[in-house]
DNA sequence: TTCTTTATTGAAAATCATTTTCAATAATTA
DNA sequence: TAATTATTGAAAATGATTTTCAATAAAGAA
């Protein structure tokens, strides 16, 4: 998976490849931190100075629609985006520096069936997110 | 725990008990659904017609500060509030009707220490949320 | 390549949620 | 009961996001 792959996916879905979109895609693709639209704008303008904030919003919207980026929920706010993981993955966030990692391999079947029994709910999905300190920050 | 308890807590923390706050507290305390400030406003105005939306925001802020309500994160948005659980609890949300339940008794120690080993992170907290259909909706 | 079509652009305006300001009011306590 | 001061709602201000629009540029056709 590379930034070019994202551009191809946009193209395959009938969207055009532009300098503005390249700048946004490159920026978000290569970031290890979740970025707000405004942060994407600041960073991407280093690659394409004329980029407008509106185009950042519009491009993020399309990338989210194609499941190439996903929104990150944090106590301080939920407007930031990160390159999406592949398949069923969960997030691990550094509380100090904001670095984001994915992990997989959670087995919550025992838990969910126990909760299903107790509550009478039929459980369809789960969100799991871990917070802590990354190897650099701890 | 009753709505009166919330009012007492507000009072104990130096806040005054007013008709406006009663209406907000009663509304949020007794709701089985997460409510946005605007939804709280609409509902609470049935109890106290003169209630302003600004007061809803201010009251929710204080209730959150006292850990009596908490924000609910959902795919569609993160502005809604619900009466907080006691101690370490997680949320279970009905995707159909929006009903919210708490559950406890998750044991993620095995998972977190495995992830800690793999990633080098020191894990401090976790968020877990289940989505599904409640007994009425399934 | 050049032309044509039409998606995309950035700026400005509009919208929506939330916060701040402010003078009037009402809860507390002395 | 009076004095103090937190609280109120309305209006204004702010900040994030969305919409509008005319100009531009990407993509496919000729």
SSE layout:
The structure is a homodimer of 138-residue chains.
Chain A: H1 3-12, H2 19-29, H3 37-44, H4 53-65, E1 69-74, E2 77-83, E3 90-94, E4 100-103, H5 109-119, E5 122-133
Parallel strand pairs in A: 3-5
Antiparallel strand pairs in A: 1-2, 3-4
Chain B binds a DNA duplex (30 and 30 nucleotides) through residues 14-21, 36-38, 50-55, 57-58, 79.
Description:
The structure is a homodimer of 138-residue chains. Chain A is α+β, with helices and mostly antiparallel strands and 138 residues long. The first copy, chain A, has two domains: 3-83, Arc Repressor Mutant, subunit A (Orthogonal Bundle), CATH 1.10.10.10; 90-132, Dna Ligase, domain 1. Chain A contains five helices and five strands; from the N terminus they run ααααββββαβ. The first copy, chain A, has a three-stranded mixed β-sheet with strand order 4-3-5. In chain A, a hairpin with a 5-residue loop joins β3 (90-94) and β4 (100-103). In chain A, α2 packs across α3. The longest helix of chain A is centred in the middle third of the chain and has 13 residues, at 53-65. The two termini of chain A are 30 Å apart. The mean pLDDT of chain A is 96. The A-B interface holds A 73, 78, 92, 94-95, 101, 103, 105-107, 111-112, 114-116, 118-135, 138 and B 73, 78, 92, 94-95, 101, 103, 105-107, 111-112, 114-116, 118-135, 138. The structure holds a DNA duplex (30 and 30 nucleotides).
Structural descriptors:
homodimer; 138 residues; Dna Ligase, domain 1; 2 domains; three-stranded mixed β-sheet; two-stranded antiparallel ribbon; 5 helices; 5 strands; DNA-binding
